[in-house]
Amino acid sequence: MTSVAEPPVTPFAGITTLELEITGKCQLSCSHCLSMSSPQATHGTMTPADWRQVIADAADLGIPRIQLIGGEPTVHPQWRGFAELALSLGLGVQIYSNLFNVAWSWWETFERDGVTLATSYYSDTPAEHDKITGRPGSYRRTRANIEEALRRGIPLYVGIVDVLDGQRVAEARAELSAMGVRQINTDRVRAVGRARLPGTKPTLDEMCGRCTRGRGAVLPDGSLTGCVLSRDFPAGNVRTTRLRDLFGGEEWADLSARIPAPRAACPPDDSGDCDPANTEACMPSFPDDDDEVS
């Protein structure tokens, strides 16, 4: 077992959630995917040992929670080991899965104390949902696994991203509510990854304002960024520099200074939310598991 020092009371650099994008591989190829993940993608250059070191460093820095994300995190052969390590070190773990494929044995991990589950949903009609994900049958399988998670009492967060003109976002939200989902948030598409128009450059103006402010992310190549959406603006790499030095370094401070502050109010077409499964519109923050989002 990894041994770490007693964590400080206040999280280092104010980071309360560290997103770990442990793979770029995914069974889906969503039209708006921020990481451009697909079945043809790879797990990246981070080794399992690298990820374990990052998790141990997060615990040492007093960061209370990690999120395993991708791609689809459950296609990484070591994802359960990463979750178990984090739990053993006292960290909360959120698994952000598309819930397309859930092996029966995985429910045991999802049901562990300290684990929450998050997923994305797009429509109440199979054709529209599957058009966005690029995978026939994804609506049926995701919905069935949402129902199973609810049946088991697993804390579940669902995000809806408005991707298509006329998309049945309100109807999808109503369907989820009728199923018993209580943590639902929506967001517009952000111009990152596949959603960025050809020939355009990435910009920090697309961020919600919370990147680096309470959160950070480590990508499959080891890059540290303000969140998974600010992936084009790395502030060092965990494969060459320890997490404490990165969060306390000039590159991180410079990135934080460049990201526009969260707005007190949002225009009608912008929820201000860069992580729709977890954060509320306009002033996003990770809710407690017991909070209800209407």
UniProtKB/TrEMBL annotation:
Residues 263-294 are annotated as: Disordered. The keyword Metal-binding applies. GO terms for molecular function: catalytic activity; iron-sulfur cluster binding; metal ion binding. Pfam families: Radical_SAM. Residues 21-161 form the Radical SAM core domain. Keywords: Iron, Iron-sulfur, Metal-binding, S-adenosyl-L-methionine. This is Radical SAM core domain-containing protein. InterPro entries: Aldolase_TIM (IPR013785), Radical_SAM_PqqE_MftC-like (IPR050377), rSAM (IPR007197), rSAM_sf (IPR058240).
